[in-house]
Amino acid sequence: MSDAKMSSGLSRRMFMTASVSAAAAMPLVNSPTRAAQPASEKPAEPRDLSAVSMRINKQTYNLALDNRTSLLDALRDHVGLTGTKKGCDHGQCGACTVLIDGKRVLSCLSFAVMNQGREITTVEGLASTDGELHPVQQAFVDHDAFQCGYCTPGQIMSAIGCINEGHAGSEDDIREYMSGNLCRCAAYPNIVAAIVQARDEIRRA
């Protein structure tokens, strides 16, 4: 074999060997870079806590909550406002009704993180600072519109929403728009009478 052919063959062999070696080494060069990713890029876990700021009864609360925490559980277990009751926990009884930006909401069906920065009113926030009851609260007392009282906070909050929404024009309207709030003691006639009284008083104010 001539020197030229030998030189050419060696050159091709060396070139192919060097190319394969370089390709095989690429993953080894890159692997330390992947392993050294900063911890901040770790994906969020379902149980990670989120910072949530809510206005409840005109007071700001800054909470660290699991993203799956319902507004009802946040109010009762994290803020200590137990006036809002846990009934069915499925949005069927109305015992957990609160007002959010003036509109009635079933707090067991709303996540706390959904209410960041919104104005939430519970039954504890209705009476004035000097202890005077809200007209709906007073009407419930006047008409004995409760017996065991468990559903009463939700009934009162829903009644306020019903009046504010303009759905308390007649007793039939009140029955229709309060139908989502259940009373095991069947005090419905007293509840309707209380809402009529409160509606008229609010209109005169």
TrEMBL record:
Pfam families: Fer2, Fer2_2
Record has Oxidoreductase as a keyword: yes
GO molecular function list: 2 iron, 2 sulfur cluster binding; metal ion binding; oxidoreductase activity, acting on the aldehyde or oxo group of donors
InterPro entries: 2Fe-2S-bd, 2Fe-2S-bd_dom_sf, 2Fe-2S_ferredoxin-like_sf, 2Fe-2S_ferredoxin-type, 2Fe2S_fd_BS, Aldehyde_Oxdr_Iron-Sulfur, Beta-grasp_dom_sf, TAT_signal
Keywords: 2Fe-2S, Iron, Iron-sulfur, Metal-binding, Oxidoreductase
Residue ranges constituting the 2Fe-2S ferredoxin-type domain according to the UniProt record: 50-126
Keyword Transmembrane annotated: no
Origin superkingdom: Bacteria
CDD domains: fer2 (cd00207)
PANTHER family on file: OXIDOREDUCTASE WITH IRON-SULFUR SUBUNIT (PTHR45331:SF2), OXIDOREDUCTASE, IRON-SULPHUR BINDING SUBUNIT-RELATED-RELATED (PTHR45331)
The protein's name in its UniProt record: (2Fe-2S)-binding protein
